[in-house]
Class I SAM-dependent methyltransferase
Amino acid sequence: MNQHHPADDAYDTPDRADAAYTAHADESDADADDETAVRRPAGVAESVAASRHWWDRNADDYQREHGDFLGDDRFVWGPEGLDEERAGLLGPAAGLAGQRVLEIGAGAAQCSRWLAARGARPVAVDVSHRQLQHARRLGAGGVTLLQADAGRLPLADASFDLACSAYGAVPFVADAEQVFREVRRVLRPGGRWVFSLTHPIRWALPDEPGPEGLTVAASYFDRTPYVEQDESGRARYVEHHRTLGDRVRELTRAGFRLLDLVEPEWPEWNHQEWGGWSPLRGRLIPGTAIFVCVADAPAAGRG
Ligand SMILES: C[S@@+](CC[C@H](N)C(=O)[O-])C[C@H]1O[C@@H](n2cnc3c(N)ncnc32)[C@H](O)[C@@H]1O
């Protein structure tokens, strides 16, 4: 069994992201057999350690399974397939040239690659060494890769014009407000922060793509984390739930103003299932929430 990677060891340089693309599927499958899913508290350090471990073990499977849909240099906001080319949530694509953009929870940095192709200067941050190796494999030309925890960004104040994240980091951290404060700190005033995550309503429903995923089975108001843990009780995967109202309050307290909340509808052309996301459910209930914010207030608690 692999050891936890302590959160304070999360500041490695991207130089480590240089190994060949090999499969870890056997190891992750073996580990998964010993894990049970529970709802229980999970703190900041435990959540970061679990994420780093889980994404290191499962990055190969994730990229193999979803890489074609994501595209090597597309910017896809979620399983519905809405992309930034069409949505323009970061502003007009023509205005991206020269912009300093922070992407958090970047995975293989497909979004950053799309941004770089439009002349932006992206920094792609991820806690998982293995995900960043995939970014290297795809070719990180024009993209700076940085291994770090989104809650402790080793980046200078006001050093970015824009920040974005497609399902990265935010759903996996115990203290999302701390992540938002960090993003606010490194953004210049007036900079946009746009991020997507699982639509909070999905937490009331079983995570199943079929009809069984359409019947309420849990309270939308239960914020207890979802945890997969090993036999010793150590968290191996953690996701955190907040209601829509919680997210708005976290963002406001961190110094952001919400401009828009986009709930992409399931398009006719998209026939693929992605975990609990499916055409059946997508036609009836939202699966993704995209928060479009602007940093127009001083960040609370900045020193
Ligand atoms: C669902 S993947 C999304 C990756 C990419 N944005 C995409 O669309 O494919 C979530 C990513 O968040 C990263 N992540 C999780 N917790 C994190 C944290 N605390 N700090 C930085 N990245 C984190 C994971 O390593 C993983 O690469």
In short: The helical segments are 25-33, 44-70, 84-87, 110-117, 129-138, 176-186, 244-253, 279-282. Residues 48, 51, 55, 70, 104-107, 125-128, 131, 149-151, 166-169, 172-173 surround S-adenosylmethionine (CB under 6 Å). The chain has one domain: 23-294. The CA atoms of residues 188 and 211 lie 45 Å apart.
